[in-house]
Every structure is written in structure tokens, then in C-alpha cells.
Amino acid sequence: MHSGQKQKLECALYVVATPIGNLRDISLRALDVLISADTIAAEDTRNTSNLLMHYSIAANRLMALHQHNERAAAEKVIALLARGLSVALVSDAGTPAISDPGAILVAEVRAAGYRVTPIPGANAALAALSAAGLPAPHFLFYGFLPNKAAARCRALQELIALPYTLIFYEAPHRILECVSDLQSVFGGDRQIVFAREITKLFESIQRCSLAEALVWLNGDPNRQRGEFVLLISGMAAQQEGLNADAEHVLAELLHELPLKQAVQLAVRITGAGRNELYQRALSLKSSA
Ligand code: SAM
């Protein structure tokens, strides 16, 4: 059963968001486009067939577009657009091109001069942020961190001084090591929110300090299962004494200079207190 309507679509690439769990989280307009598009480019055609079947939409217009064939598939999509046809792009869940295939296709279609139009809807990062209760006006969506510990810690070091809520995607089999690295790089004071299985049967949203996070995760094996978004409170919420610009300058200088010199220069550049900067430099160095 669906409430969408078949219509003649203008020639364009439609970037269509699909549910991240609950199949009812799809817009009426997304259904209209999926019913009407001449071709549907899907990350996994079997997965998308299931979604289409659920809404009694014919699944005979599917083509595969995934990370291993995106450029070749983009050529095919452009050939379809050149014939005046319409193409819908979907990924396995959520919004295409957000930690999912699609960005290369969109760039190539735009470069070829065809219209690209978004059909907005579910996205795990924004759903998690909306229910996390981290009161910060700004956020940074990072997506997946590197798989290997050394690269992951290096990536996290780059984010230490940012005064924004940080949003990560993480796989369940890496959740323990990832949270352990978050704690060792950011220290124990910041807040973490585990947004797990959003919109699904076992949805849970848990907030605690990074110091408590591993104990909570290990408290029940079910807490490590399913799909996760991790949110970490930004630096500004922690360091009331030192403003975000001073934090940032100090962190950058510490990459290049010995601690004492970095602090001296940071005092001159930012005007912040020597003692405060020195204490902060010590804690940044020790978490590195
Ligand atoms: N394009 C998708 C979007 O718009 O959110 C993200 C795709 S990415 C390959 C998949 C990751 O998104 C998962 O590993 C997990 O981190 C997050 N995710 C997807 N669905 C989720 C859900 N229902 N609950 C929590 N996290 C989810």
C-alpha cells in the first residue's frame, strides 16, 4: 500500500532519502518519485526491492550504483538523462551521499549540465542530534573515523579544540575501541551520547560522561549491538575559562612547537592567561 502518485517527472537526478529503520519514515514526495522515476539507481538492489515491495511499488526499474561501480554507473545515468529520462538515487538507508555512495554521481551529473534535486528525509546523524539534548548551537558531522587505532587517534586530535558537538558513525564491532580512544584523546569530562538503533525496536539514547562510557557499554552486551551514532560535546562546553579561539590556536601551535614556546606564542596571539594556557597545554599533551 502506498499513498504516492505516479506522475510525469521532469528530466533530473532525484536524490531520495529512505528510512533508517522504521519503514514509515519516508516522505510522500519520496514515494511519488520512486513510483514515477524511469530508473532507480540503488546501492543494493535487493534491499531497495524490499522497500519498494513494502509500498507496492514496481521494482523493475532498478540499476546498481555502489562504491565499487559509481563512476561507470554515473556514465549510464548521464546517458539516461541525455534521453530526457528521470533517475532516482537511493542508498541502503537514510540520505544518499552522506557516508554513502552518491557524491560522485551527483558531481558528474551536475558537471554534465543536468538538474539534481534532493528529496529530503531520514538521516541518522540529524535524528540522533535532535534527540541527544546536547545544548550547543553548532555541530560538526564527521561520519566514520578511520578503522585503525593510530589513524583514529590522529583524526581525533585534530578535533580536540573544536567548540562544536561532534557527530560520528561507528560500527558495532569497533564501538569499544572507538569509545576507548575517544576517552583517551578527549579525557573523561566531556559528555557522550550513544544513539543506538534509532527508529527501530530497540532504540536507545544514553548520555553519560566519557569517563563512564566504557563501564556503561560493558554493563550489558546488548548495549554494543546494532547501529550507532556517537555524539560528543564540544570543547567550549568544557573549558569555561579558555575561549574556543585560544583553544584552537594553542592546539595548532602544539602540533608544531615545544610546549613552552607554544604557550608563550599563544599568550601573545590570543591574550589569554599564561597559566590557563599552560594547564590546558599540559592536558592536551598528556592526552596526545
Ligand atoms: N546515509 C545514511 C544517513 O543518512 O544517515 C548513513 C549511512 S552509513 C553507511 C551507516 C551508519 O549510519 C551506521 O553505521 C550508523 O553509524 C548510522 N546509522 C544508520 N542507521 C542508524 C540507526 N537506525 N540508528 C543509529 N545509527 C544509524
TrEMBL record:
SUPFAM superfamilies on file: Tetrapyrrole methylase
Gene Ontology MF term list: methyltransferase activity
GO BP of this protein: methylation
Family from the record: Belongs to the methyltransferase superfamily. RsmI family.
Keywords annotated in UniProt: Cytoplasm, Methyltransferase, rRNA processing, S-adenosyl-L-methionine, Transferase
NCBIfam families for the chain: 16S rRNA (cytidine(1402)-2'-O)-methyltransferase
Gene3D superfamilies named among the record's database cross-references: Cobalt-precorrin-4 Transmethylase, Domain 1, Methyltransferase, Cobalt-precorrin-4 Transmethylase, Domain 2
The keyword Nucleotide-binding is annotated on this UniProt entry: no
Domain of life: Bacteria
The protein's name in its UniProt record: Ribosomal RNA small subunit methyltransferase I
Lineage per the UniProt record: Bacteria, Pseudomonadati, Pseudomonadota, Betaproteobacteria, Nitrosomonadales
EC number(s) stated in the UniProt entry for this protein: 2.1.1.198
Keyword S-adenosyl-L-methionine: yes
HAMAP family xref list: 16SrRNA_methyltr_I (MF_01877)
